[in-house]
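Retro notes
What went well: the complex prediction finally ran end to end.
Inputs used:
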Amino acid sequence: DIQMTQSPSSLSASVGDRVTITCRASQSISAHLNWYQQKPGKVPKLLIYTASNLQSGVPSRFSGSGSGTDFTLTISSLQPEDFATYYCQQTFTMTYVFGQGTKVEIK
Amino acid sequence: EGQLVQSGAQVKEPGESLKISCRASGYSFTSYWMGWVRQMPGKGLEWMGIIYAGDSDTRYSPSFQGQVTISVDKSISTAFLQWNSLKASDTAMYYCATRGITGVDALDIWGQGTMVTVS
């Protein structure tokens, strides 16, 4: 089975900071990588699909890149509403494994 | 636009059976896959499995194979997640989510979640 590993597990950042989260797959998944945001007590929300495509309605400060095994989610200028946990997920195989999550906290 | 409405919170005892539901509306139910995701208290998202509503083709995560059953009833546009014998470790929030109804290869529409407590 494909394993997905995110880093870091958590980070502290200030409003306005540029934030980068990494996701690594245990084997090549081409560009079949999605990113979700989950705020406490809320339903997960799709941010980025197929590695680099912004889901409709998602602010342009979010971007994704990568292919093969290494992927990145970048928030160009962190906003107060962006403090949340972020998950990557592969859809290369039908076992849609998630990464363990990265919690973005206020510094 | 598509919407998923899940059944309400459940409190059960160990050993009991349970079937929770996810009712779809606003899209062609039988044309898409529906997945289930577990989130234990304070923990991350775990992929459980996915079913194609058109023909009930089902793929389970190895971690959940044999532990749960995923099914659909096309007549009422509803997907189900079922346990035959609950354990305390099944205590979690369970989400259903569609794959691709907005044209993307991802879980794009999510239900509100069903909290299951086994105690």
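What we learned: Chain A touches chain B at residues 1, 32, 34, 36, 38, 43-46, 49-50, 53, 55-56, 85, 87, 89, 91, 94-101 (CB under 8 Å).
What to try next: split runs per interface for comparison.
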